Amino acid sequence: MEQTFLMVKPDGVQRNLIGEIVTRFERKGFKLAGAKLMNISKETAEQHYQEHNDKPFFGELVSFITSAPVFAMVWEGENVIATARQMMGKTNPQEALPGTIRGDYGLTVGKNIIHGSDAPESAKREIDLFFNETEIVEFEKNGNNWVY
Ligand code: DAT
Ligand code: MG
Q1: Residues with catalytic roles
Q2: PTM Phosphothreonine: at which residues (predicted)?
């Protein structure tokens, strides 16, 4: 089954949105396969956002994501990568629709609450960057017959 890497950013953690965000993905029918509260090192942040290392906001992005703890997660389910991106809303919260996480809780692009992988390759890369094998849990979910 497809997996994606989602992360409540420091602003989301500080604003007590971890539970709200986990609830949305749980209720959608996705399965949580791993999660941890952690501080990100500068090196990990730079690797995570490597595709943006030539952008003017790169320094700000790295210092923001390392400024306080994040809540890193692996979620599983059919088409979870694209669906999670839809549930997050557009990168700029001012363009994100109401009903999306960024649309409901964010105001600025620099503090947009949540990260989610944008493709299968980045999902794999990001899951491997943040989680080791023993932190990803394989199990059957009883309710899955009522989702699929
Ligand atoms: P997303 O997080 O929706 O995948 P992205 O990969 O284009 O968006 O950018 C990564 C993060 O960088 C984004 O969540 C917030 C920040 N960012 C993007 N564009 C920005 C900009 N123009 N100014 C400041 N920060 C920006
Ligand atoms: Mg991105």
Answers
A1: 115
A2: 91
CATH for 128 = 3.30.70.141
In this prediction the ipTM stands at 0.98
Q: In which domain, by residue range, is 132 found? A: 3-86+114-138
39 belongs to a structural domain = yes
Whether residue 7 lies inside any domain: the answer is: yes
Ligand 2 centroid, distance to 102 Cα (angstroms) = 14
Which tens digit of pLDDT belongs to each residue from 72-106? 999 999 999 999 999 999 999 999 999 999 999 99
109 Cβ inside 6 Å of ligand 1:
yes
- 9 annotated as belonging to a binding site for a ligand: yes
Closest CA to 26 of 64, 63, 72, 76: 76
| Position 93 in a domain | no
